[in-house]
Design brief:
- The N and C termini lie far apart (57 Å).
- It is built from four helices and two strands.
- The protein has 115 residues and is mainly α.
- A hairpin with a 7-residue loop joins strand 1 (45-50) and strand 2.
- The chain has a single domain, classed as Arc Repressor Mutant, subunit A (Orthogonal Bundle).
- The protein has a two-stranded antiparallel sheet.
């Protein structure tokens, strides 16, 4: 899921540095570097060297068309899984309600008066 989060952040802000990605996603700088390198190797992220910083090397990360497709694929798979979990929880809640006396409806329970 971290790959998805990195792709989402890059799509929203291509000027992210590895450091700002790490801070935004609450991951280590090393992990940000590792994930970005993997995404570049897969061809879902392209790296451009910017020339407007002569004293520093500055990189821009851009989702490729393959990256956009991959992000959509991951989103669909994640959503499908979450919807399945939701449906399973709904079925389990319905079953638990059926097992309760009165089919899960609140009962009028007499109060015990405090002395």
């Amino acid at each position: 899921m971290i790959e998805y989060k990195v792709m989402r952040e890059i799509e929203q802000n291509p000027m992210h540095t590895q450091r700002t990605l790490a801070e935004t996603l609450d991951i280590s700088l090393g992990k940000a570097n590792y994930v970005l390198a993997g995404l570049v190797e897969k061809g879902v992220v392209k790296v451009k060297k910017l020339k407007n910083h002569p004293d520093k090397i500055r990189w821009q990360y851009v989702l490729t068309p393959a990256g956009v497709k991959e992000k959509l694929k991951i989103t669909r798979e994640y959503l499908r899984g979450r919807l399945k979990e939701y449906e399973d929880l709904q079925a389990e809640i319905a079953q638990l309600k059926r097992e309760l006396p009165g089919n899960g409806k609140p009962r009028n329970v007499p109060r015990v008066l405090a002395r």
